[in-house]
Design a protein that fits this description.
Layout: H1 2-41
């Protein structure tokens, strides 16, 4: 039973880590797009 809990915890941690990475990547892309628009505007 303990082994299953550890596996579930690892899967959950990996899932959360993947979601965090996706959000951070989206933020970087958004900042880059805003920067490009600012350069084009000015």
């Amino acid at each position: 039973m303990e082994k299953n809990k550890l596996q579930t915890d690892m899967i959950t941690e990996n899932f959360v880590s993947d979601i965090r990475a996706i959000i951070e990547q989206g933020q970087r892309q958004a900042y880059a797009a805003v920067g490009q628009i600012a350069v084009i505007t000015y």
